[in-house]
Amino acid sequence: MKFGGTSVATLPRWQNIQELVSSRRAEGVRVLVVVSALSGMTDALKHLCAETEAGKRIEAAAGIVERHHALLAQMDLPLPAALERRLADLCDLAASGPGSLGELAWQALVQAHGELLSSALGAAFLTAGGLRTEWLDARECLTAAPLPNQNERTRLLSAMVDSRPDPVLAATLAARGDVFITQGFIAREPGQGRTVLLGRGGSDTSASYFGALLKAARVEIWTDVAGMFTANPRQVAGARLLQRLDYEEAQEIASTGAKVLHPRCLSPLREPRVPLLIKDTNRPELEGTLIGPQVGEQVVSVKAISARKNITLISMESVGMWQQVGFLSDVFDQFKRHGLSVDLIGSAETNVTVSLDPTENLLDSDALAALATDLSKVCRVKVIAPCAAVTLVGRGMRSMLHNLSSVLAEFDQLRVHLISQSSNNLNLTFVVDEGVVDSLLPRLHELLISAGAMRTDDAAMFGPRWDVLYGSADTSTRGPVWWQGPARARLLALAAEQTPRYVYHLPTVREQARRLKRLSAVDRLHYAVKANTHPAIIGALAEEGFGFECVSPGEVRAVSGLVDETVPLLFTPNFAPREDYAWALQTRVTLTLDALYPMEHWGELFRGREIALRLDLGRGLGHHEKVRTGGSGSKFGLPVAQLDSFLKLADAHGVTVRGLHAHLGSGILDPGHWGEVYGQLASLAERIGSVSYLDIGGGLGVPAHPDEMALDIDALDAVLRQVKAVYPQYQLWMEPGRYLVADSGVLLAKVTQQKGKGALRYLGVDTGMNSLIRPMLYDAWHEIVNLSREGEVAETLYQVVGPICETGDVLGQDRLLPSAEEGDVILIAQTGAYGKVMASPYNLRDSGEEVVLD
Ligand code: LLP
Where are the transmembrane segments (predicted)? Predict the structure, then answer.
């Protein structure tokens, strides 16, 4: 069990250690505690070493002595003889200075006192508390291994230890006692050699060395966080705890940015297969991260995403011949000469680009300039900085590429300097400009989950979100869904009559409508009927006071037939024929134009009328590339650059632009988005003058995975109110679709057949992409449940497929479900939005009739 500096700095922390060690003893195991120096002590000792005057050094030592006396007093313990001796040794070393030891050996010995002191203190405390604790000198056990290319500094201050299992040592210790305490960070040269330090990641590495030497049952690293997360929680509050990792994945995550564990501490444990557990000292009940040998078949998943900043890229263009022999050797030779370690490499026939990682290199502008000068003798050099390396980590990365399409689409609008795929198939790295990375990371993390590339539905692998564990996040906004519970019997009965069947739950529609009505900044809410045109849903939302947004004459007619004359109707066609506009102008709808063309070619149609104008604000957002409706890659909206031309044409035809509209995409969970759109539209409206309302679209997302965070409607309101306070003159409209209906609908199907093929097990159901095309079209993830087997253990990994003649007819990949049988009722959740409305008669199979529950 290893405890770091803050964990050993105060009495309550030591009481905590006492409890934890006792609980391990109660399990019947022997414990070796590895401690760091009290927090701040290593720095204090380094300062002591940097003092040239003996007086100053003695003063510094006195401060350190004082700190240990103070903690002893807190513990109400007399000064133990062993600690007294070590404190005296430190004072002697301070007084004498390096002397005959030599500067570096003296420094190592002085700094080693941080751990020598804390462990002596700990031995006294634990023993006094009733746990007989043996103090063990780490230097008796850990011997530095001589390495090639070592100099005196690395030999003394950055040593490595050969830690092959040593059964003799294990037996000797077992004979001596049950609880030991020793020092992190220190070791000894072979023989009766000098004290050496382990360098970066020191104490964790010591714990691993001991774990390997003793072939421990496990190594526990007790720290201030529950383990490794899917991303740095400071950048991604929704990062998930990684509960299980194999050594290689953990190593990769540690090397590409996670600070909780130094990458060095994993390799000693790999061969003896000693597991390592990371635990939170303050929250011992949390499962933590268990790192061990790869176990069994696992769902293939991206495990983490990280970003390393301050990366420098060196691009080298061969000036000589194409495919010049020896070019690589020439350029890499320069890196070696300058002592710089290369991280990523990309190569072309005439160009090689490499990255330099600041954690591995002492990079300053002089070092870079010197390198560039030498390199320029053999090639044309370009230094690109500052960059950031964004890395996705997961075993079997190459087999996940197909799941990454929507994630990779995010790089579309960025400059990607280098892509590198590790040869061990564990990572995929993108080097981008450093400035974009802070906003990019949370988006990528969200997309990885929604694209099903990070399989957070696997509860054994992925634990709770960081903001749920440590922050103020409230997941209660996502209560139980209607089909869990009493409704189940009803659904089973409906399925027994007939499948496939869509079932809609009207109370859920109303509940969502009421949530949106809490948006006090919004003056008018419309339902985007394209999401679900069932009359009962349109009727329920009309009763809730919603207007309607339609995109075709068909939709306008359907709604008009159901609601009364006073209900607002918006008509937002795109690339529609002339007659649609002519027709709409004969009705009471509010018409939105989104191009110059209608005004240029059919201007007379609009003479004297009021219209709204849909703008393309130059960017799109959403759960998948195909639902992003902004930027030049999307066909929607008038580019802002054409606004003046539009206004001139409007003016010429006596047309008044009464509203501005923007809808950037679908499935957005960040409330800040609508604030940005609102602000942009408002400032454009000020230029136009005639505008009285702003429609900021729909796109409000609903989380697909059970533990994803719902869109925070109060936070959205707060964002909107801020903008409204600046632009009170404009009415604010919205037109969500999905948010109102997605969770209200389920698709019921029955199991038809099963098939094993290679490692895969296919579960066939009686409908597929003909009923629900979203998984095929957008890789959308819909929860799938075997309703007939509630409460049974989910033990089989299924590919859930339909009966349609298409390989893409897959409703869900890699779903862990109870073993199913023919006739079982399968529920596909969250199909109230863009389900039945996008169904097709393909293969002339029934896509499912619709049933409404109220
Ligand atoms: N307003 C306009 C102008 C739209 O184009 C859309 C959706 C909405 C509002 C409503 O967006 P919502 O709130 O539902 O996200 N079939 C895709 C979604 C396509 C959305 C098209 N436009 C899917 O299944 O995810």
Answer: none
Question: Tokens representing 282?
Answer: 């303050």
2-223 and 517-735 have identical folds:
no
pTM of the model: 0.66
Range list of β-strands (E), 566-703: 569-571, 590-593, 610-616, 638-639, 656-661, 693-695
For the record, the structure tokens of 508 come out as 């859920």
The residue among 581, 546, 551 whose CA lies nearest residue 733 is 546
663 lines ligand 1 (CB under 6 A): yes
Output the residue whose Cα is nearest ligand 1's atom 19.
Answer: 627
CB count within 10 Å of CB 708 equals 19
Q: What is the CATH number of domain 304-464?
A: 3.30.2130.10
Burial of 78-108, coded b for 16+ CB within 10 Å and e otherwise, reads eebebbeebbeebbebbeebeeebeebbbbb
CA-based end-to-end distance of the chain: 57
**Domain limits of the chain?**
2-223, 304-464, 517-735, 743-853
- Residue 409 has which token pair? 């689409």
**What span, in angstroms and rounded, lies between the C-alpha atoms of 169 and 724?**
72
* Residue written as token pair 């072939």: 215
Q: pLDDT tens, 95-139?
A: 999 998 999 999 999 999 999 999 999 999 999 999 999 999 999
Tokens of 241: 């705890």
> In 459-603, which ranges are continuous DSSP H helix?
466-469, 487-497, 506-517, 535-543, 553-560, 578-585, 597-601
pLDDT tens figures, 495-547: 999 999 999 999 999 999 999 999 999 999 999 999 999 999 999 999 999 99
In 3-state terms, the chain is what percent helix, strand and coil (to 5)? 40, 25, 40
Residue nearest to atom 24 of ligand 1 (CA): 834
Higher pLDDT pick, 260 / 734: 734
Superfamily of domain 2-223: Acetylglutamate kinase-like (3.40.1160.10)
Residue 774 Cβ contacting ligand 1 at under 6 Å? yes
Dist. CA 303–CA 294, nearest whole Å? 14
793 CB-contact burial (10 Å; exposed 0-12 / middle 13-18 / buried 19+): exposed
Taking Cα atoms as reference points, which of 756, 810, 754 lies closest to residue 784?
810
* CATH H-level superfamily of 517-735: Alanine racemase (3.20.20.10)
Residue of 196, 220, 222, 92 lying closest to 138 (CA atoms): 196
Determine contact, residues 162/188, Cβ cutoff 8 Å: no
CA distance 779 to 405: 9
Name the class of domain 743-853. Answer: mainly beta
Beta carbons of 819 and 795 less than 8 angstroms apart: yes
The two tokens of residue 351 are 């160009």
Residues sharing a CB contact under 8 Å with residue 646, sequence separation 6 or more, in sequence order: 596, 599, 613, 638, 657
State residue 135 phi and psi, 5-degree precision: -85, 130
Residue to probe by mutation, ligand 1, list 532, 634, 738, most atoms within 8 Å of CB: 738
Quick: pLDDT tens for 682-735: 999 999 999 999 999 999 999 887 667 789 999 999 999 999 999 999 999 999
Which two structure tokens, joined as six digits, stand for 557? 């007619």
Torsion of CA 85, 91, 93, 94, to 10 degrees: 160
Is 782 close to ligand 1, i.e. is its CB under 6 Å away?
Answer: no
Q: Pairing between strand 179-183 and 784-786?
A: unpaired
* Nearest in space to 828 (alpha carbons), one of 764, 783, 770, 779: 783
